[in-house]
Amino acid sequence: MNIKTLQQAFLKSIPVLAGYLTIGIGFGILMRNAGYGVFWTIAMSVFIYAGSMQYVGVTLLTASASILTTAITTIMVNTRHLFYSISMIDTYKDAGAYKPYMIFALTDETYSLLSDGKTPDDIDASQYRFLVSLFNHSYWIIGSILGNILGSVLPFPTTGIEFSMTALFIASFVEQWLTTKNHMPAIIGLVCTILSLLIFGRENFLIPAMLFITLALTLIRNRMEDTI
User: Fold this and answer.
1) Which tens digits make up the pLDDT trace of 51-84?
2) Distance between CA atoms of residues 154 and 158, nearest Å
3) Three-class SS of residue 84?
4) How far apart are alpha carbons 161 and 157 in whole angstroms?
5) Nearest of 151, 146, 193, 204 to residue 169 by alpha carbon
6) How many CB atoms lie within 10 A of CB 151?
7) In terms of Cα–Cα distance, which of 105, 89, 93, 98 is closest to 1?
8) Cα atoms in the Cβ-side hemisphere of radius 13 Å centred on 43
9) CA–CA gap between residue 7 and residue 29 (Å, rounded)
């Protein structure tokens, strides 16, 4: 692992840096206000590392939710990972010892950075993707620690902090739109999501939307590959 690989991976991860630090701080503040200190905040960020689910997890903890409720909620919130991770099978197939961690660390934002499959010239592709994933994870951990500490010395109302995850998803979408020429996947995603929201309602639209998006992208896959 050389300096060039580290530099290129860090540069690639910069778009996520500000977002993860900010949203991690929000999560840390929520944890502190819920009565959980730095240790539990670090544990959740290291071993769970699922931004939206960690935000939901604070509510589950404070509500003393059952294991069954927690399991079902986790599956519902993170089901989207199943759909987009399928497209990374070929990209990650030769990752070797890095592969388990890279699978674990494949968040929405890391996927956004690595989904094009491109890597800088003259560096190990697997090391590069591993480091991008690791840098992003470290930003989240650092942000959550800072937030928990700030929450203990600067108490303030936390209403609205949970919207920061939505803001980050919007930023990732805009970044993808600006950096890619083929906007068909984004348009399909928007249309399927809006239709699912209208048909199934806000509580049940996520899984149907993912299914519709996967089906639509599968049907037009060959045509999209021809235009790339």
Assistant:
1) 778 888 887 888 787 887 788 778 777 777 777 7
2) 11
3) helix
4) 9
5) 193
6) 24
7) 98
8) 7
9) 31
